[in-house]
Amino acid sequence: MKTKILEPTRENILTAAKIIAEGGLVAFPTETVYGLGADALNPEAVGKVYAAKGRPSDNPMIVHIAEAYDFDKLTAGRNATIDKLMAAFWPGPLTMIVERLPNVPDTTTGGLNTVGIRMPDSEIARELIRLSGCPIAAPSANLSGSPSPTRVQHCIDDLDGRVDCILGGPDCRVGIESTVLDVTGEQPVILRPGIVTAEQIAKVLEIDVEYDKALFERPEMRPANAGLDAGFSDDFKPKSPGMKYKHYAPKAEMKILEGSADAVKVEIERLKSENEAAGRKVGVILFEEKAFEQAAHEFFAELRELDKQGVDLILAGALSDFEGVGFAVMNRMLKSAGYNIVSLS
Ligand code: TXA
Ligand code: MG
């Protein structure tokens, strides 16, 4: 298939919108990561997204809307909690899981009776949704399993020839995917951490926000402030089906070093020399301490850059004392490395 690669001019956004309205696939920028969009209410179109990404079809998609009133076309679940969250965080990087109306197809929700909805704050994304005249189902615009795309070139690398159109735009501001929050129960539960943190949500709602236990499947994933002392069992079932798949993996082997900043630096240097002496090409990912938002912005792009350079081994320094946005970045880093973590303390 010939993929149209377009600059985000008004005319080109209209061209892309027509492709969506006619059941085609368009990769487009959002503030978090690039999305691969299709008409969310057209099961045939949504089915093509799974095929283009090589994604398992039980993994539900987030439905993107341009205006708050579009929310009520997808769910009857609106309540005071949701109103507060909308006012505080939309448009923006928060996805809410709510019960779906019957017009939302099984193909979009992976057969669940809930649907994830988000209003992106990218003007290009919202203009595309408005002009398409439909809500847009969009997972991240990468091949399934590879790092999420935060620059238009990443979409081209993964999807050129597999989708109808790639609508370009700026590098993604946030750099990691939206926070996914289940608001179907009494207490909101974070299914995927992101730049909108549990603390921020709790402050707006004036109630405690829980993390899905699947996020702590491994003890090393636990943030400093999770406030969870008990209740970890081996037989939990992830609420977010996406949690169970291999994710974000670079082609290179990846190892995370965890410990004091000095110890991490020393060990990275040692491992680098050792591996280089053995003829391996080594890449290093090391963020400044506490610069969590910057880490979020750069992490996926760095993985892709190192793969492009053809490195055999990536050595990454774990974020120290991570919480909030740091927790969200560590969630991705640990998955990328397949939990290959070395503790230096
Ligand atoms: O920032 C983002 O959210 C990006 C941009 C494009 O908006 N999209 C994105 O989509 O990250 P995707 O498909 O890569 O991740 C969606 C996540 C998956 O982990 C999926 O399982 C979860 O959201 N999800 C979607 N609908 C759900 C539902 N009804 N119940 C539970 N989890 C759901
Ligand atoms: Mg994804």
How many whole angstroms does the radius of gyration measure? 20 Å
Q: Helical content, roughly?
A: 25-40%
Principal-axes geometry comes out as: globular
Contiguous uncertain segments of 5+ residues: 225-238
Give average pLDDT, whole number.
92
Order of helices and strands: EHEEHEHEHEHEHEEEHEEHEHEHE
The number of helical runs is 10
Number of strands: 15
Strand order of the largest sheet: 1-8-2-3-7-4-6-5-9-10-11
Q: What amount of the residues lies in strands?
A: 15-25%
**Largest sheet properties:** 11 strands, mixed
Instruction: Look at the helices and sheets and give the structural class.
Output: alpha/beta
Which ions and ligands are bound to the chains? threonylcarbamoyladenylate, magnesium ion
N→C terminal distance: 52 Å
Description:
With 345 residues, the protein is α/β, with parallel strands linked by helices. 32% of the residues lie in helices and 17% in strands. It contains 10 helices and 15 strands. The chain has an 11-stranded mixed β-sheet, sandwiched between helices. The protein has a 4-stranded parallel β-sheet with strand order 13-14-12-15, sandwiched between helices. Strand 2 (26-28) and strand 3 (35-39) form a beta hairpin. Helix 1 crosses helix 5 (123-132) and helix 9 (292-308) packs parallel to helix 10. The chain is globular and about 60 Å long. The protein starts with a strand and ends with a strand.
